[in-house]
Every structure is written in structure tokens, then in C-alpha cells.
Amino acid sequence: MPLCRLCGNAGKFVKAHIIPEAFFSVLREGGSAPQLVTGTPNQFPKRSPIGVYDKGILCDTCEPKFDRFDHYGVETLHVRFDELFQPISHQSKVIAYQAAGIDQKLLLQFLLATMWRASVSTHQFYRRINLGPLEEVARRAILEPDKPVPDVFNAVMSRWVIEESHLQSAVGGVMDPFRERWDGVNGYRFYFGHVVAYIKADRQDFVEPLQGLTLLKKPIVTMVTRSFDRSSDFAAMVHTVKLSHSNLTRARATRMTPESRKSSESETP
Ligand SMILES: [Zn+2]
């Protein structure tokens, strides 16, 4: 019998969102379902009308424990972003966004909760997220939200600046998160709409210049901007969207086989 990954009990399992649904609608085009973009060849986009969820990780008692984190993450990084963050310009270009009065611990808890859910999920979209021994450290931090967030976890964020014309043409996709290293510090990169979070899972601290942008270090939260159209992320996303589109077209043309229909489902059993 499957056990809830948070409490360890056999309970009634519920659909648990991993990256909250709101972030999938940020990039939604023309009312159609957002696509999950993956760089893996021969995979066409997985239509995911209600965002990405996993119904094999959390029981109905534990799932609501994420509400507070998710609500704050969605409000801060998406719904109220323009109200909370001031653009900082240099030579008439926006180079950063800054905000005071952010509950930085709660925001970090949202990022950690998302990373933990991605780590325990067997969903293909999160296949590159595996916290290993730190998964248990993260689980305990979620169960004891009043304690400080363990030092092994912290985050730096950036924000894409997207030119309108590119926004129209480029994307209906959400990039899957992946593991990377920044000057020897291990972590994972997640995409939350236009915000990119670099979440470390490592005993070492970030090194400069990332150190100065880390949550909980300063009263003001700073996100540097990335030029979306020049970043390699943009190139990767356009490439994978094109690839996905051509795979989708091919799959439609040849009619879906039972095998491909199975793989297009957006939930794990
Ligand atoms: Zn539970």
C-alpha cells in the first residue's frame, strides 16, 4: 500500500500540485492548455489543462499544509509582482527588480516545498529533481514551519524581460526544472512563469555575486533581469517548443498509438 511521502501514513491520496497551476497559466496562449516543454526528443507536448500534479505523493491531511506556502509564492512571484517589485533601471534598461517587505522566509519555504514535491514525485516532468539525503531534511522543514529553514537550502531569483513580440510567438510552454552547479554549489533551477529560481541544496553558501542576492541576507529582495531573447534558456525553449510541435504534428498525422496515448497523460498513477 502506498504511503504519504510527508507523514508516512496510508491515507486517502489527493491530487497534489507540484509547481502551482497559476504558473502554468502565465505563459498560456489564447486560452489553450499550457504545454509542458521537454527537451527529450520524440516526446510531444503533454496537454495539461489543470497544471501538473501527482496523485501518488500526498494524503488529504498533508496536502493542505502546502496551501500557505503556495498561496504566498503565487501572490509574490505572479499575481502581485508588479505591485510589490520596483524596476531598477540603468541607462534606460531595466537591470533588476527590488522589493521591500517580502516575507523572505515564507517565500523560501514555498521554493523548498516545491522542490521537495518535485523530488518525491515520479512525474516525468520532475525526473531531474532528486534531493537524495537532503529530501528528509526538506521533509522535516516542511513539517516544522516555525523553525528556521535549514542552511542547506536557500535561493537566488532572476526575472526574464520579455519583449512583447517574443511573448506572442515564442512560448506556450513551461520548462522542466533541472539540476545544476554554480561555482561548485549544487542546486536546482525552477521556472515560475517569468521568474527563475536557483534553489541550492548544498552545505556551502552561494559565492559572490550570487551571495549578495540570496534570500534572508538583506531586507530587500533583488532579482536581476535576464534578457529573455538573448538567454540560452530562450533558445532552448524555442527549440524544444518547435521540436514538440513537430512531434505533435507527426503524432496526429499517424494517429496516436495506445503507447503514445499513455505517455501523453499528465499524471502518474
Ligand atoms: Zn500525509
**How many separate helices?**
8
Using only C-alpha atoms, the radius of gyration works out to 19 Å
Total DSSP E strands: 12
The order of strands across the largest sheet is 5-6-12-7-11-10-9
Question: Percentage of helical residues?
Answer: 25-40%
Quaternary class: single chain
Structural class: alpha+beta
What integer is the average pLDDT?
A: 80
**Strand proportion:** 25-35%
First-to-last CA distance: 13 Å
Tell me what you see in this structure.
This protein has 269 residues and is α+β, with helices and mostly antiparallel strands. The protein has one domain. It is built from 8 helices and 12 strands. It has helices at 21-26, 67-79, 81-84, 104-120, 134-143, 164-170, 232-253, 258-263; strands spanning 13-17, 35-37, 46-47, 53-59, 86-90, 93-100, 153-161, 173-175, 178-182, 185-192, 195-201, 220-227. The chain has a 7-stranded mixed beta sheet with strand order 5-6-12-7-11-10-9. Strands 3-2-8 form a 3-stranded mixed beta sheet, with helices on one face. A hairpin with an 8-residue loop joins strand 2 (35-37) and strand 3 (46-47). The longest helix has 22 residues, at 232-253. It is globular. The two termini are 13 Å apart. Bound molecules: zinc ion (ZN). Zinc ion binds next to strand 4.
